[in-house]
Amino acid sequence: MNVPHYVYSRTARVRHQPKTNTAFSLAETAIATMLVAGLLVVALNTVGDTTLGHQKTGDRGLGHLLGHDLMAEVLAQNYEEPVDTPAYGCEPGESSTSRAEHDDVDDYHGWQRSPPQYRDGTVILNLDGWERSVQVHRVSPTDLDQILGAESGVKRITVTVSHNEMIVAKLVAIRTPGLPPPKLGPRILLVVGDPANLTTQESARVTLMESWDCIVELMDDSDSQSNFDAAAANADVAYISAEISALELNTKLRAATIGLVNERIELTVVFGFGEIFDSGTRDVVEVVDNTHYITAPFSVGFLTLFSPSQPVHWRESVGTSDALTLCETNSMGGVYKPSLATLKPGDLLWDGGTASGRRVQLPWGADGFDFNSLNSEGLTLMKRAIEWAASQEQP
Questions:
Q1: Domain end (from 123, 143, 175)
Q2: Cα gap 216→353, rounded to integer Å
Q3: 202 and 334, same structural domain?
Q4: How far, in Å, CA of 129 to CA of 121, rounded?
Q5: 252, 225 in Cβ contact below 8 A?
Q6: 67 with 75: CB under 8 angstroms?
Q7: Which helix (H) or strand (E) holds 216?
Q8: Tens-place pLDDT, residues 292-319
Q9: What 3-state class would DSSP assign to 370?
Q10: Which one of 126, 145, 175 terminates a domain?
Q11: Residue 110 belongs to what domain range?
Q12: What global pTM score does this model have?
């Protein structure tokens, strides 16, 4: 449609101006193309920087998990050879390739493998480009940076983890003959929204778990399936906090053989406990089975977990006949429904298939849940849920 235009003069006469050419000139087209190209480059660089940042965060998290796993193994050994005549490094008959026979900390001196291996020498899958190495030095008791050539009663252990020849984690520990091997809690893979920017609630979980002597490694809920598989191979249990995105995590841990402890309400479905769930504000649950390790410290009956009341959830239907209900919650209809339940390896899931590892569905984790509201009973329940899920011994 042609839109008329007018040019008004100071007089009443209207001067008709010659038509102007509204098409772009070649120069204007070139300039516009350059501007669009420049904006596209900026946009692509921004996306690239964001992707690279997520990758580096994921590498650091996985690197620390691999490092802690190896460091825990080294620290669990004797200070010096307990059977044969002590030698610095591997004693005669001990392999320098497999760690299965290492029984004192300096057996690990100089050990290096890429890709990383389990203690028996089996390669850990999906870790091409990753490397772990160990250095053990005798150091001065008064200057831990001073390396000595003779026994001093102090050994410094350094575990280094690299990815594509870039160091992503380095851990240092001190071992003396007067200290027994440390008793460590489970290795927990804590799934969070953003490891680089923990929420106050997520930080509270980390602090609590570390106070239980657990080794905690963070995992971004948006990380790749291959990184989740590799991280799970070096953990005892995964803990899914209520702050994560259920859509981002989705099924990445469904087939994991390690234990799982879940807070997030939507993942009740993903992990096979049931199809229909609901939530409400409560401060108590009812213990219906205290013969299980998780609920053993409590009497059958009502148990207060929070102060003040918090959003909790329950399953409207049992979902799977193999899920063991330990606690129930008063639903909206006044009927008590399953809210704390477990699955064991091989148990039938509501949507078909079987559980690959131990699973615990906690009764809290609906939107608005305040982790700091858990009282001592709630914290005990959480701790024992982690211990049971991580263990292969507790019934």
A1: 175
A2: 30
A3: yes
A4: 17
A5: yes
A6: no
A7: strand 215-220
A8: 999 999 999 999 999 999 988 888 766 6
A9: coil
A10: 175
A11: 52-175
A12: 0.63
